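Work Package 3 (structural annotation) set out to generate three-dimensional models for the target panel prioritized at the project kickoff. During this period the team completed the workflow that converts sequence records into discrete structure tokens, so that structures can be stored uniformly alongside our sequence database. As a representative example, we reproduce one entry of 171 residues exactly as it appears in the project archive.
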Amino acid sequence: IYPVTDVNFTTASYNQNAEGYSLTKVTMQWYWDHYLSSEDDVLNPYAALLQAKSLVGQPPALVITAEFDPLCDEGEAYAKRLSEAGVATTATRYDGVIHGFFTMGAVVEKGQQAVDEASAALRKAFARPDRKSVAQGNSVDPGGRRIIKNTNKRTNANDDCVEMTSTDARA
């Protein structure tokens, strides 16, 4: 979600969205100045993913960017590099929104859309053929525990699911 993938403050999105849209170019420069231990780290792919010689073998990726975000271009460049490396990649730019919109779903409709897209991608990534659909109410993990969705009124964050131990994972 609006990934930071390079130390390049000259992209079009950095210049067009340098200020006035929450996350600023000056703020990103401050973050990088405090994140890197030396100027040499600018080329370190562990700090700046776009500096990696190859992205072959990376896991499938969903890259979400925001139109009015200094990070938009580098996020899209990262998605392009992943795709060129043969990595299953989905890139979605949400127009009309700023960096941080993902957490604003209660007031920004596209924020909720992005959360829904990311949730669907995660469900797909973690889906296993041997696991019953959570939508059916029950599922089984590899440890043989049957997870049963709690349909009672939620009273706290720990009441989402009830775990039951089963000796037969097919139960």
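The chain is about 25% helix and 20% strand.
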